[in-house]
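TASK: fixed-backbone design
INPUT:
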């Protein structure tokens, strides 16, 4: 087991959680969340730039799953793996509806892990669950951001296999 296995399992779980998420774009079309690992992928063509408005639909809405940190108290203990889920949405509403979209996404993730704290039948979600909205003073309309921090408990691989032959 590596933390990358947990990251991949979380990407798959988020895709399932958010597959029918009722987020509307400015054109009132339902737009599926894109789930990325580590970062938003680089453009391989000079033809487009993500900062151009016509490419925003290629990125937004998104969840970005980033590995944050890990900790293991002793050789016999389970490992805590911390991952951050960054959420970005585009909402043209003038009343800050984008914050509502981000909070609804956070709530969907929270509800799912409250119902089923086991990830891929191997990793246990561990409280606390932390979340935040983008608190910067800079105006970013129509783009809104937030995040969730999740900790998963897992067995660690040691030299020769799992601890105690498990």
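OUTPUT:
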């Amino acid at each position: 087991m590596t933390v990358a296995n947990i990251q991949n399992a979380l990407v798959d779980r988020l895709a399932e959680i958010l597959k029918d998420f009722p987020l509307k774009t400015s054109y009132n079309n339902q737009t599926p969340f894109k789930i990325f690992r580590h970062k938003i992928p680089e453009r391989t063509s000079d033809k487009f730039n993500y900062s151009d408005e016509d490419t925003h639909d290629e990125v937004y809405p998104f969840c970005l799953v980033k590995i944050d940190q890990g900790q293991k108290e002793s050789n016999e203990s389970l490992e805590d793996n911390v991952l951050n889920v960054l959420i970005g949405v585009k909402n043209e509403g003038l009343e800050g509806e984008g914050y509502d979209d981000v909070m609804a996404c956070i709530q969907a993730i929270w509800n799912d892990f409250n119902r089923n704290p086991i990830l891929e039948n191997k990793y246990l979600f561990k409280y606390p669950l932390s979340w935040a909205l983008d608190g910067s003073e800079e105006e970013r309309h129509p783009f809104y951001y937030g995040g969730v921090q999740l900790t998963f408990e897992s067995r660690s691989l040691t030299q020769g296999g799992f601890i105690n032959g498990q």
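COMMENT: Strands lie at 34-37, 62-72, 79-90, 118-119, 123-133, 143-154, 157-158, 161-162.
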